[in-house]
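Model the whole thing, not chain by chain.
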Amino acid sequence: MGAATDDAAFDPLPPAFCERDALSVARDLLGRYLVRDSVVLRITEVEAYRWPDDTASHANRGQTRRNAPMFGPPGHAYVYLCYGLHQMLNVVARPEGEAAAVLIRACEPVEGLDVVAARRGGRRGPDALTGPGKVGAALAIDTSWSGHPLWAPGGLVLTHGAPADDALEGPRVGIDYAEPAHRDAPWRLAVADCRWVSHRRSLRGGGR
DNA sequence: ACAAGGATCCTCT
DNA sequence: GAGGATCCTTGTT
């Protein structure tokens, strides 16, 4: 991706991009870039946590200190710690007061592969970036980034990237505690024909 | 102040 | 395919 620095791929997405239903935002996030310093990752897999009435969502039982950014304005990060060690990055969707988010589950490296490999124990293949905890590690973020605006220069930035033409869909991972209707809903989306995707066996063609 | 469980990852078999 | 790691968040006492 050599001469990518002078095209629009690195223009930040405005907050208004995220000011709609999380499933729509999720679909349109496929192919976008997450940029932090020398590291550029292309988003390849996401999950929508919707509003209202999604029993898998952290926001389902009301606002807490942890999930407060979900209730805030769109286009901010929501980062939380999972299983005591994994930093999970979400993009906040919907207007302020309506708590929805998109979990970034996997990415494909665009630039900064050496830095990513160093942060991921030397891994350079899809194992390095297929899983939400792996993405957090590759970007070296933690919960102190929760609430960060994703369009502000110099931090963690969500940019236009290279939007994906085709998508696969399937049920979200690790939410057996949710009501069946939400547990089985196909609200996990991934770039089609892409190796940088986790749990590929449970995905099917869904498109756009 | 306490107990329970988690939107996962890694290693080993 | 199974289990341990690892500690914060949450709801309750």
